[in-house]
Amino acid sequence: MGGVSPVGLVLAFGAGEIKTAYGLRDFAEAETEFTTWVDARAWNTGDGARHIFTDGGMWLRTGKVLLPGVTTLARLVARVRDQALDRLHQALFGVLTPRQRAILELLLEVPDGARASDLERWRKGPSVASGKNLEKALVRAQEILGLGLDAVKLPPEVRYRRLVDLARYGMGATATALRRHAPPDSWRRCWPRSSTWRASRSMTAWTC
Asked: The DUF4158 domain covers which part of the protein (predicted)?
């Protein structure tokens, strides 16, 4: 049998029978189209690999494509998604000037004599509404706007939704967690905090 195991022959025969009975295409015929779909999904939505994998299975069934092995499909989705995220990081990195990158790096560091980084200090908004807290919020707003990062223009190929997705991620991330990401990843996770802050939380918190 040419070195092919009986199990392999049975599986191949079964796949052929299913393909013929239901009029399905081989995955190889649709792989390029499917890869394009996964890439667009990852680029435009930022959905996780598991979510894309699940919806990808539905996409293949709808397109009458014979499903590949689970491992094959999972690896392809993960690889294409990672590549899309890398392009996103590079696109956001590319619009920052050297000065702006340096500012973002400093936001993650704890200044001498301080207990926390500026990033952590700005994250904690007032818990009680009062005149004094409003004054503190105004000072914080002035400090953040003084960075000049709100003037950074989003790359035309990047949807605003993606910036919001990054901001949502950063809401739950500390400066310590962000420092674990190597630039430009740490920069692109930190930048949305300042650029979306005014629109999403006004003077009550600094979003990410």
From this structure: 17-80
pLDDT in tens, 80-103: 999 999 998 888 888 888 888 888
Q: Taking the model in full, what pTM does it have?
A: 0.69
Backbone angles phi, psi at 36, to 5 degrees: -65, -40
**What percentage of residues in the chain have a pLDDT greater than 90?**
25
Q: To which residue do tokens 């920069």 refer?
A: 187
Tokens representing 160 are 């605003």
Asked if 111 and 118 count as a contact pair (C-beta separation under 8 A), the reply is yes
Nearest Cα residue to 184 out of 100, 77, 117, 63: 100
Cβ atoms of 162 and 91 within 8 Å: the answer is no
Beta carbons of 125 and 201 less than 8 angstroms apart? yes
The H or E element spanning position 22 is helix 6-22
Element (H, E) at 74: helix 70-94
